[in-house]
Design brief:
Helices cover 37% and strands 21% of the residues. It is an alpha/beta fold and 199 residues long. The longest helix is centred in the middle third of the chain and has 19 residues, at 80-98. It is globular, with a radius of gyration of 18 Å.
């Protein structure tokens, strides 16, 4: 699978930090000295990229990109762990934005119509429910309530942890009621996950 790219423009300090650990990152990092050089690069994969600028005031001068492709890092400082989490969730949202259909354990998730389908049975989902499923499927690990709260609902969200648990409970119940499947989203003491090895 081709790694998604992070384009770091005129933000050398951030590039140097990420460059030191690039072997352990699930994405590629590419540095540009200024927005003019970036705009001149015709080999940029616009559908799979994230742009980080030293200041967000320069966004209008970056050509041919949607707002979703930009990451605002004005709320610094962050730990490197949190920074990578934020980058990963934005990359997932970019994939979510450009893909129309995803197959997950025999289910077809249609991101445009916001439905999940199995054996001609269709269930309508909310955008947040789709984000939860996509996040659990994309990140092959168990995710606790705080992880989901931070990465799906956002770091600045005032949502309470029991609200996240209730949301996941309702989503699992919807899937079970419609498809008679209690094993699509699994619960573990370390968090929620989607079994990647399920036939």
């Amino acid at each position: 699978m081709t790694k998604q790219c992070i384009f770091i423009i005129n933000y050398n300090s951030l590039y140097e930090i990420l460059d030191e650990i690039k072997e352990n990152l699930p994405f590629k990092i590419i540095r540009y000295d200024n927005k003019e050089k970036f705009n001149q690069d015709n080999n940029v994969d616009k559908k799979n990229s994230l742009i980080i600028l030293e200041t967000q005031q320069k966004i209008p001068s970056i050509i041919n990109f949607n707002k979703i492709n930009f990451l605002d890092l004005t709320n610094l400082p962050l730990s490197i762990y949190k920074l990578i989490e934020i980058i990963n969730i934005h990359l997932i949202k970019i994939k979510f934005n450009y893909k129309s259909k995803v197959i997950i354990n025999g289910y077809e998730l249609d991101l445009n119509s916001k439905t999940i389908t199995n054996n001609d049975i269709i269930l309508k989902l909310t955008e947040k429910e789709i984000e939860v499923i996509f996040y659990l499927n994309e990140n092959k690990t168990k995710h606790g309530v705080l992880d989901l709260q931070n990465n799906i609902w956002g770091y600045s969200s005032d949502i309470e942890t029991h609200t996240v648990e209730t949301h996941i409970y309702r989503l699992r119940k919807k899937i079970n009621d419609k498809f008679n499947d209690t094993n699509f989203i699994l619960s573990h003491k370390n968090g929620y996950f989607i079994d990647q090895n399920k036939d």
